Amino acid sequence: MLESVRFAGQCVELWHWQLAPGVTYEAEPDPPGSQEMLYIISGELVLTLDGLLRPLVTGTSIAFASDQPYRFHNPGPFMLRFSKNVLLAAE
After folding, report:
1. Is the distance from CB of 61 to CB of 82 less than 8 angstroms?
2. 81: domain range?
3. Which of 4, 23, 62, 66 sits a CA distance of 20 to 30 A from 49?
4. What tens digit of pLDDT does each residue of 7-46 get?
5. Are 54 and 38 in contact (CB under 8 A)?
6. pLDDT of the residue at 75
7. Is 48 exposed, middle or buried (0-12, 13-18, 19+ CB in 10 A)?
8. 7: which residues sit within 8 A by CB, 6+ positions away?
């Protein structure tokens, strides 16, 4: 995590992530109403959300509700680098 700011009972986080080739990260749901935004800096990311695979490549982004289980996977042969902004709803 690079930065975190709290205001009005919510928290915004800025992350820089890296996943090695073949690595998968299983995420736990955030509090109800939470959101995430991803921007792929380099590499490939497969986001699994609602049972659907959503492939993302360098230069693409996505926003989604993070109050559900989701998964990040690096299917490529190179290091995956991406930024992640999280808006955590008040619990």
Report:
1. no
2. 3-88
3. 4
4. 877 899 999 999 999 999 999 999 999 999 999 999 999 9
5. no
6. 97
7. middle
8. none
C-alpha–C-alpha distance, residues 87 and 64, integer Å: 11
Q: How far apart are CA 66 and CA 13, in angstroms?
A: 13
Contacts (Cβ under 8 Å, ≥6 apart) of 64: 35, 36, 47, 49, 70
3 state SS of 32: coil
> In 3D, which of 8, 21, 24, 11 has the Cα closest to residue 79?
21
- Please, what is the end-to-end C-alpha distance for the chain in angstroms? 20
Q: How far, in Å, CA of 80 to CA of 19, rounded?
A: 5
Number of compact structural domains in the chain: 1
Amino acid found at 32: P
- Rg of the chain, C-alpha, whole Å: 13
Question: 0.85 cut: is pTM over it?
Answer: yes
User: In degrees rounded to 5, what are phi and psi of residue 69?
Assistant: -65, 145
